[in-house]
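Model it.
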Amino acid sequence: MVVHYFDPPYHGTFSGYTGDDFDEEAHRRLADYTEKLDVAGAGWLLSNADTEFTRRLYAGRRIEVVNSLRTVSRDAAGRGEMKELLVSAKAAA
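Modeled.
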């Protein structure tokens, strides 16, 4: 089985890696795409920031909260342990 892994710019963090920001609409499009993968029976895993927005976006999916250590950030306050989400396809009925 092929499993797709998505590691988008995390919601609420720097998103200007390219000329087009990865804004909330881009996050919505990615969530819609994962819904299509669910329908097709494809496996997928996504990591993102633990925010209300991402929790709402992926409500009904498997969500696991993990601690992640950030050692690189231009802002010292952005370093240290933070919570992030691992999201995967809906549980089989």
